[in-house]
Write a structure and sequence with these properties.
Blueprint lengths: L5 H13 L2 E2 L4 H5 L3 H13 L3 E3 L5 E4 L2 H30 L2 H10 L7 E4 L2 H14 L3 E6 L6 H16 L3 E7 L6 H12 L3 E5 L6 E4 L3 E5 L10 E4 L2 H16 L2 E2 L5 H19 L4 H8 L3 H15 L4 H11 L10
Parallel strand pairs: 5-6, 6-7
Antiparallel strand pairs: 1-3, 2-3, 4-10, 5-8, 7-11, 8-9, 9-10
Helix pairs in contact: 1-3, 7-8, 10-12, 10-13, 11-12, 12-13
Length: 333
């Protein structure tokens, strides 16, 4: 039901002043309306119960808005009540099944050890389900620098909902994520709600672990198709993956979104690039390991070789070793 237009309000006010809206009245001329506009306003007022047929059949008289309100709102309130009762019935029927489903998910499927999903939609469905079921802690490794803005917008409310119900969230990014404005905004919001986020120079592949019981790990990309995922519930494997996360977590740098922190991590990136250069890795491989674009990596490499006055990558690595600069992974890498 639409709200009254300005013409309808003007016609109602005219009817109040004149006592009625009669056929052949001067309402249209007085209000500057066409015959069609007056007819439409009259129809709207009748629909809303603000005009009632006059006893002599020659027109309509204005009605009390309080009475009109009751007449119009009564069926709406009845419909709302019917929908509320239907919603209660849905809750009563489905809520008792949730503990059964959760128990099946946590224990019944553990015997399978590992399940694989090739389609991203199926992976997302399983992730959403585990996000809702998670009751204690979710830890994740997110390599590759800054994350996709659309992805972050899609998970921010999910993350906040988990934190609100007391779930602990810990996430590891790579140092290069600190340069992403959207990632920094996401980290700022979830950190304020209690999440913990750290960064490190190198990480393994993407991984998510729920309640130390269920791990999501990506499948290798084949034939250009999007990544699928394997869901691991074997306690031995999940325990190993969780210990691996803890080891990297302990060496990470807190991501507090303060610009001053980026200088320290940028220096760690340079050391990591030098170390990988000295190991003979190509720019493309280094960029992938450190979660940055190949062009960015090449810019770092050029700056490093120019600073050292080296003629080649190998010579740069040798000069760093000769100068006694650290090339071994340190805390924070």
């Amino acid at each position: 039901m639409s709200l009254l237009e300005n013409n309808s309000l003007s016609v109602y006010e005219w009817a109040l002043r004149n006592g009625a809206l009669r056929t052949g009245s001067t309402a249209a001329a007085d209000l500057g309306l066409t015959a069609d506009e007056l007819a439409q306003a009259r129809t709207d007022l009748l629909d809303q119960g603000l005009l009632l047929p006059a006893g002599d059949g020659t027109g309509e008289i204005p009605a009390d808005p309080a009475i009109a309100e009751m007449m119009v709102s009564a069926p709406l309130e009845q419909e709302i009540e019917q929908r509320r009762q239907a919603l209660i019935r849905v809750h009563e029927q489905l809520r008792p099944l949730s503990p059964l489903f959760a128990e099946h998910t946590r224990t019944g499927r553990q015997g399978e050890g590992i399940r694989s999903f090739d389609e991203p939609a199926a992976v997302q469905r399983e992730l959403s389900m585990m996000t809702r079921l998670c009751s204690e802690e979710m830890v994740s490794i997110q390599p590759g620098g800054g994350r996709n803005p659309d992805t972050l917008r899609g998970i921010v409310q999910e993350s906040l909902s988990m934190l609100e119900r007391g779930v602990r969230l810990r996430t590891l990014y790579q140092h290069t994520a600190r340069a992403s404005l959207t990632t920094r905004a996401y980290v700022r919001e979830v950190s304020a709600a209690g999440a913990q986020v750290r960064t490190t120079a190198e990480v393994f592949d993407r991984m998510i672990i729920f309640d130390r019981e269920t791990a999501f790990v990506p499948q290798p990309r084949t034939d250009g198709r999007p990544h699928g995922a394997s869901i691991v519930t074997d306690p031995t494997v999940v325990g190993f993956l969780f210990r691996m996360f803890e080891s990297i977590w302990e060496s990470g740098q807190p991501f507090d979104t303060q610009q001053s922190e980026y200088q320290q991590t940028a220096e760690q990136l340079r050391i990591s690039i030098l170390r990988l250069m000295a190991a003979g890795l190509k720019d493309e491989v280094i960029a992938k390991r450190l979660g940055m674009a190949t062009r960015t990596c090449r810019r770092y490499v050029k700056d490093i070789t120019d600073e050292l006055g080296a003629a080649s990558r190998f010579q740069a690595g040798y000069m760093v070793w000769k100068l006694g600069l650290p090339l071994e992974p340190e805390r924070g890498e």
